[in-house]
Design brief:
It is a single chain. This protein is α/β, with parallel strands linked by helices. A hairpin with a 7-residue loop joins strand 3 and strand 4. Helix 1 packs antiparallel against helix 2 and helix 1 runs parallel beside helix 4. It is elongated, with a radius of gyration of 25 Å. The two termini are about 40 Å apart.
Length: about 280
């Protein structure tokens, strides 16, 4: 009976996330079909467990009870821990509210330009991505080929509109090939983040992005040089248009691609504040 409840719980949780629209805060929306598949399988397994439990209970009630008592006496703690571990995602999913990330997360965790474990020699280094980095999912040759194929779509464009659909791929290209984007006009929208090391005119504009699932989610965007006199607060959503240049950023001790903003407009946050990587 406990197995039926757990499987049914997983199915109902997936159904709840689908109906409420909160699933997109856990996984890349392009993998929604996997959530639908897991929901269907969970409900099928729940029905199977219910039928099996009912059948055994009717046909062999006394012997079943005797077997269960003997089994529970043998390994009660192991079963308890197993059921608790299986139930943990359900407890978290149903008991804790889903909230959108904002600059308070960035302030709490901080962020830095990504450093590879190989380059530092420290296998335990904690990296926070300013740029999306999908290289960890591919062999180097495959990754380089994919980046070159993507770059071919933009290298001859002087004006690039960065949308929800291409946000992560264009940001990755800008950081991988900054010289190829010099002088190009780009536009995108995101929320403002003032680092303690930044001036008012030099602030980051970010989006929270999900590559595969929430485990590889990060904050991605550009350092922007805003027009003089612009007043923006943390979490203000803006739409920007400007030119890509590069400059040395002292807190990171390296040259970064930056956006010299020509026009800035405050906007309302989008219905879905996350962006997702398309493969």
């Amino acid at each position: 009976m406990i197995r039926f409840i757990i499987f049914a719980g997983y199915g109902l949780l997936m159904m709840s996330l689908q109906i409420s629209g909160k699933l997109n805060q856990y996984i890349n929306i392009h993998y929604r079909y996997l959530a639908l598949l897991s929901m269907a399988l969970s409900l099928i397994l729940a029905v199977f467990q219910l039928v099996l439990w009912t059948k055994n209970d009717k046909e062999n009630h006394s012997s079943h009870e005797h077997h269960d008592d003997h089994h529970h006496k043998q390994k009660p703690l192991q079963q308890l821990w197993a059921y608790l571990l299986l139930s943990l995602p359900l407890i978290v999913g149903f008991a804790f509210p889903t909230v959108s990330l904002d600059t308070t997360i960035v302030e709490a965790k901080g962020f830095q330009f990504p450093l590879s474990k190989e380059s530092t020699g420290d296998p335990d280094i904690q990296t926070q991505y300013l740029k999306p980095d999908t290289s960890i999912f591919f062999e180097k040759s495959d990754y380089d080929r994919q980046m070159q194929e993507l770059m071919a779509e933009y290298e001859n464009k002087e004006v690039i509109s960065i949308t929800d659909d291409n946000y992560l791929e264009v940001m990755e290209l800008i950081y991988n090939y900054p010289s190829d984007f010099l002088g190009k006009t780009v536009s995108f929208q995101g929320f403002v983040f003032h680092s303690k090391d930044d001036t008012v005119e030099n602030s980051f504009v970010f989006r929270f992005g999900i590559i595969h699932c929430v485990a590889d989610a990060g904050v991605f965007g550009l350092l922007t040089h805003l027009p003089e006199g612009t007043t923006l607060d943390n979490n203000d959503w803006v739409k920007l248009e400007g030119t890509i240049t590069t400059d040395y950023y002292h807190p990171f001790k390296r040259t970064l691609p930056i956006m010299t903003v020509n026009t800035v407009k405050k906007i309302e946050p989008p219905e879905n504040e996350y962006v997702y990587r398309t493969f």
